[in-house]
Amino acid sequence: MSVSAQTGPSTRTKATAGTGTARTRAAGTAATTGQRGGYAKGRATQQEIIRTAILVFADVGFHGASLRDIAARVGISHPGLLHHFPNKAALLEAVLEYRDAVDEQSFQEDLERGSDYFEALLNVVERNRLRRPLVELFAGLSTEATSPDHPAHDYFQRRYARVLGEQSQLLRERAARGGLAPGVDPDQAARTVVALMDGLQIQWLLSLERPGAQRVDMAADLRGYLDLILR
Question: What are the sequence ranges of the domains in the chain?
Fold first, then answer.
């Protein structure tokens, strides 16, 4: 048997196998690309649902909101929304997580740039002037959630416990270094700071119909209190 006769079939088999492998790899790449594209599209849809839900929850509250209405505003079907969020409570949880992520990211960036805790807190309050829907959302839901059967009740219980704990600890540490005004109780001051921030948000929202100079300046008023208690 000639050399060419021996190698001929083998070469054709290798070529066929190579072509098949190439096609398999191409198909695999296309499938992976498709999966990534589908995942990115799904994430984009989820974000659009969350942003729309923020506006709806802020406008009519959790109980007044309708998933069908939110889906219609996004431009998807009601079952399409349920594919991402199986019920209204799950969507509310995602909305609150989104709000916390927005605040936490900017807060941590301020700390990394050298701001202390309370200066970073003032920056968050200042930025809230540009995030009216999130402020309205928080003001409305925090009031609704005082009811124990509200889906966000536990969230707000945990949030206030965490924030008050952090601020009380920081104020105690400042007091130990002489950084707190005489007679200021750290726990009481922490509650006052949180209450002031929440109350100022409501007053600011109510003042938005006034001319600019007459609107509540949340950051300035909070800074005025902090200047009284911090040294």
Answer: 3-74, 87-229
